[in-house]
Amino acid sequence: MAPDPAHRDRELSYLALLAPGTPLRDGFERILRGRTGALVILGDTAQVFELCSGGFELDVPYTPTALRELSKMDGGIVMTSALDRIVRAGVQFVPDPQLETVETGTRHRTADRMSRQTGVPVATVSASMSTIALFIDGTRRPLQTSEQIMTRANQAVQTLERYRERLWQVTARLSALEVEDQVTIKDLALVAQRWEMIRRLQQELGDYVIELGTDGRLLNLQLHELGAGLDDLRELLELDYHDNEGATFTLAPLTELSTARLLEPLDVARGVGFVNQHLDTRISARGFRQLAQINRLPAAYISRLVDHFGNLQGVFGATTTELQEVEGVGESRARIIREGLTRLAESVYSEHLG
Ligand SMILES: Nc1ncnc2c1ncn2[C@@H]1O[C@H](COP(=O)(O)OP(=O)(O)OP(=O)(O)O)[C@@H](O)[C@H]1O
């Protein structure tokens, strides 16, 4: 099952607020360094107050020092939902003891139950384990140091580089098959599968960038670099194979596939829109992707060429004279296009065979 996107967004927004370098994170880090603990409710809804017992009311602006000093007291803290003020301290929280929790220790059991019962996220600092955790929508998310996140991110970057390499290999193969008019649904599914695997890794890396806060700038640049050309590829593939064999080819539904199903070419083919067809069914490319590689050939001409000749095969088969039947194509442009097509076919072969 793909994770719930609403939960993911909410969790990410809180991870961003608690990212290294933010004032909130600074407060929790100070508590950690002081080897004390904390239980902080990140919102002041009526339901939160109903579950508060004892402690005292206050209304002070949030500062890392204030959080550190107030957490020295026994009990927990309540912050406003905007996370800019501290409104209660030394509070004993009394959530429903029937709510199931796998946490051990009263602080973390309380944190888990409070977040489940009120829907308000809760942050804890464990005195005994020296960890900071975020409880949100029934899950516990440990907050990692920048070094820990970077270790995972670097592994993901390496995998992404390998996947990119593989994607360009399968796309080069697709290009060669398109020139020979030998493409099957399986060949296209393979490219779609690789594309989606990369998208998932990019998303994972994007999450690390958010989690890293100010420490994520370099990773963000790297992520943009590694993503170059991928959106264009998606767009061109969709233009090429949309409405082929009665299928509405699009990559978007692949986000819904589980990792196991994404590895199955038939599931991928079904996902991108070929709902009934056999994997060996032949399909032909319109040619947008390959024609876009011809130097200085404006997009408007590519569309006209494809419209006029029907598909890539048709364009490849056209003589210089036939090319001139296309609106706006005179003798010299026809010659440039013809030469471009020849060079394209040559490069496709040499790239694929090399
Ligand atoms: N219901 C509660 N409301 C407010 N604070 C609580 C509550 N339960 C525990 N705490 C706070 O947690 C502190 C530590 O409790 P305990 O050692 O049982 O928890 P723990 O989960 O093992 O925590 P740690 O990992 O920090 O050792 C208490 O002294 C108190 O400040």
TrEMBL record:
Keywords for the protein's UniProt record, in alphabetical order: ATP-binding, Nucleotide-binding, Nucleotidyltransferase, Transferase
GO MF annotation list: adenylate cyclase activity; ATP binding; diadenylate cyclase activity
Positions of transmembrane segments: none
Superkingdom to which the source organism belongs: Bacteria
Ranges where the DAC domain occurs: 8-147
Catalytic activity: 2 ATP = 3',3'-c-di-AMP + 2 diphosphate
Keyword Plastid: no
Any Pfam family: DAC
Keyword Nucleotidyltransferase belongs to the record: yes
Protein name (database record): Diadenylate cyclase
Naturally occurring in which organism (per UniProt): Microlunatus soli
